[in-house]
Amino acid sequence: MTSSMKLPATFLSFSSHQPRGSSHCSVASAAYAAEPRLSEGAVVSKKTPRPKFEPSIWADFFLSYSNPLAYSDNQRSMEERAEYLKKEVAKLIVNSRTDSLPEKLHLIDVLERLCVDHLFEEEINAVMDEISDADVSDCELHTFRDEDGIFEAEDARDLLSLYNAAHLTTHGEGILDEAISFTKKQLRSLMPKVVEGSLAHDINSALEIPLPRRVRIYESNYFMSTYEKGASVNEMIMELAKLGYNFMQIHHQQELKIITRLSNLFLLKLCSILINVKNVFYMCVQVVEEFATRNKALLC
Fold first, then answer.
1. How many CB atoms lie within 10 A of CB 13?
2. Distance from C-alpha of 253 to C-alpha of 89, rounded to nearest angstrom
3. pLDDT tens, residue by residue, 77-119
4. Mean pLDDT taken over the chain
5. Which residue among 28, 151, 188, 261 has its CA within the 20 to 30 Å range from the CA of 276?
6. What is the domain range of residue 81?
7. Is residue 181 assigned to a domain?
8. Three-class secondary structure of residue 145 per DSSP
9. Domain Terpene synthase N-terminal spans what residues (predicted)?
10. Is 80 exposed, middle or buried (0-12, 13-18, 19+ CB in 10 A)?
11. β partners of residue 145
12. What DSSP character marks residue 3?
């Protein structure tokens, strides 16, 4: 992987090797090994404690690591494939205007959870404009409550969707606060009965941190694995999401390589400065000691 490699700009708007021993410790040890020693009878007689530098968790691993996908030929083919898939998925979104409202919402939700929605902002906005003009009177939140105003819902997946959506509430929206309390209680009671592994995971994750409050790029990594196994998976969207994730991984590895190199240079410079500061300090101590010896009477 070379530092000059460029990644597709569209994917930069998203976020088995063992690391070797850190060179930070060896640099610090060499610097302090060269420090001057106090002469006998010096004012500062205590040995100065040496700071302990915690090694980096990745050490110099990224300085020599090269991602196989980062080679120019591989990257070029990935970019070409990504551009083709973007055009095809864009057509898919445009054609979804004839689909039912739930199908449109499901498609947009998949794109968002896979972190590729930023590639289709114009197409998604056009679909959302159509949805905002649609008649959704049958889908109002009040229709999910009985005559006494109590929420009615039993399906675990429906409850999970309502629970996550309700966390988009703003201050003063009491009905959404009630929806959160109701769905949280229902989901906790349904947990022992949920058999599907991915649904159980989604419920547990939502009860810990609701979906709108999670870091999307981390969430997308898990969602890829569950969406790929689902019956409604779209292969083009799935492949585009994987390419986007690989591009971001290469980009972050490049950044870590640069940070590691700069941190090593900074540490060398810092150690050099510290040695110079200590030399000046010891010289000052010696000057004060000599002055005190020659002028004992004056100081008393």
1. 9
2. 28
3. 889 999 999 999 999 999 987 888 888 889 999 999 999 999 9
4. 78
5. 261
6. 68-248
7. yes
8. strand
9. 57-133, 135-207
10. exposed
11. 151
12. T
Q: How far apart, in whole angstroms, are the C-alpha atoms of residue 213 and residue 211?
A: 5
183: in domain = yes
Cα dist from 120 to 81, 234, 244, whole Å: 16, 16, 13
- Amino acid making up residue 57: I
Beta bridge partners of 136: none
Question: What pLDDT sits at residue 135?
Answer: 64
Quote the number of domains for the chain.
Answer: 1
8 A C-beta contact, residue 90 and residue 127: no
pTM exceeds 0.70: no
What tokens were used for 295?
């002028």
| Residue 37 forms part of a structural domain | no
Q: Would you list the DSSP string of 56-78?
A: PSSTTHHHH---GGGSHHHHHHH
CATH of the domain at 188: 1.50.10.130
Which amino acid does the sequence have at 244?
Answer: G
218: Cβ contacts below 8 Å, ≥ 6 apart: none
Whether the per-residue pLDDT at 3 is higher than 70: the answer is: no
